């Protein structure tokens, strides 16, 4: 069994802090970290359809943008079912457990569609 790992970049528009809502919003984007997401693939899911699944169904769940902030996908990859993010590995190393796991994505639509 495998899963898809998606890593995003969060940015905040510091130019919007003093914006009065009129005209164009000033643009001064600062990088603020990101989030990890997982989606578990069914055992029989065809790997040649993974790219379509990620682009059409999963990325729209985690990417967004407005005048104040945005989240964009930096990378995605198919990983083993036991793959851990850096943050999860650090929690295991220092705390002996994972209290803050990566978010697991779900799909409302059937995967076969």
Strand content: 25-35%
Share of helix, binned: 10-25%
Task: Sketch the major β-sheet.
Answer: 6 strands, mixed
* Number of H/I helices: 2
Low-pLDDT runs of 5+ residues are 109-113
Total discrete domains: 1
Shape descriptor reads: flat
Distance between the termini: 20 Å
Number of strands: 6
Class by alpha and beta content: alpha+beta
Mean pLDDT: 90
Compressed to H and E, one letter per element, the order equals EEEHEEHE
Task: Please explain how this structure is put together.
It contains 2 helices and 6 strands, in the order βββαββαβ. Strands 1, 2, 3, 4, 5 and 6 form a 6-stranded mixed sheet that branches. Helix content is 20%, strand content 32%. The model is unreliable at 109-113 (pLDDT under 50). Strand 4 and strand 5 (69-80) form a beta hairpin. The chain has one domain. By secondary structure, it is an alpha+beta fold. It is flat and about 50 Å long.
Quick synopsis:
The protein has 113 residues and is α+β, with helices and mostly antiparallel strands. Helix content is 20%, strand content 32%.
Give the key terms.
113 residues, alpha+beta, six-stranded mixed beta sheet, 2 helices, 20% helix, disordered C terminus
How do the strands and helices of this protein lay out in sequence?
Elements: E1 2-13, E2 29-31, E3 36-40, H1 50-62, E4 64-65, E5 69-80, H2 86-95, E6 103-104
Parallel strand pairs: 3-6
Antiparallel strand pairs: 1-2, 1-3, 1-5, 4-5
């Amino acid at each position: 069994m495998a899963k898809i790992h998606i890593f995003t970049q969060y940015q905040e528009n510091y130019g919007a802090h003093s914006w009065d809502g009129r005209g164009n919003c000033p643009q001064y984007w600062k990088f603020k970290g990101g989030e990890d997401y997982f989606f578990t693939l069914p055992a029989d899911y065809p790997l040649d359809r993974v790219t379509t699944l990620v682009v059409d169904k999963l990325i729209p769940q985690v990417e967004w943008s407005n005048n104040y902030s945005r989240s964009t996908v930096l990378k995605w990859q198919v990983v083993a079912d036991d793959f851990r993010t850096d943050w999860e590995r650090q929690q295991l190393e220092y705390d002996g457990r994972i209290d803050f796991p990566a978010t697991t994505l779900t799909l409302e639509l059937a995967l076969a569609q």
